[in-house]
């Protein structure tokens, strides 16, 4: 879902490539072992807040439509 949102907001192939690589990169533990990540963004990663905001933009709108369909919602930013 997150990459779908990224594709909607940019057509730059390099941005898409690096974000996808970032999301698939393994985690290096303190003992030196690499652990594959199945979901999420790395904690403390510089891209994590940006991707979280993008995800929450769509997740919140969907949640509002599903749970409060009769209440109009305007986004002020």
UniProtKB/TrEMBL annotation:
Q: Where is the Reverse transcriptase domain?
A: 1-77
Q: Where are the transmembrane segments?
A: none
Q: Which InterPro entries match?
A: DNA/RNA_pol_sf, GrpII_Intron_Splice-Mob/Def, RT_dom
The chain's coiled-coil residues are: none
Source domain of life is Bacteria
Q: Which family does it belong to?
A: Belongs to the bacterial reverse transcriptase family.
Q: What is this protein called?
A: Reverse transcriptase domain-containing protein
Q: Which organism is it from?
A: Candidatus Methylobacter favarea
């Amino acid at each position: 879902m997150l990459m779908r949102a990224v594709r909607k907001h940019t057509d730059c192939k390099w941005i898409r490539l690096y974000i996808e690589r970032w999301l698939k990169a393994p985690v290096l533990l303190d003992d030196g072992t690499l652990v594959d990540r199945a979901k999420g963004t790395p904690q403390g990663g510089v891209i994590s807040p940006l991707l979280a905001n993008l995800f929450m933009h769509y997740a919140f709108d969907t949640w509002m439509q599903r749970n409060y369909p009769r209440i109009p919602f305007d986004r002020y930013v």
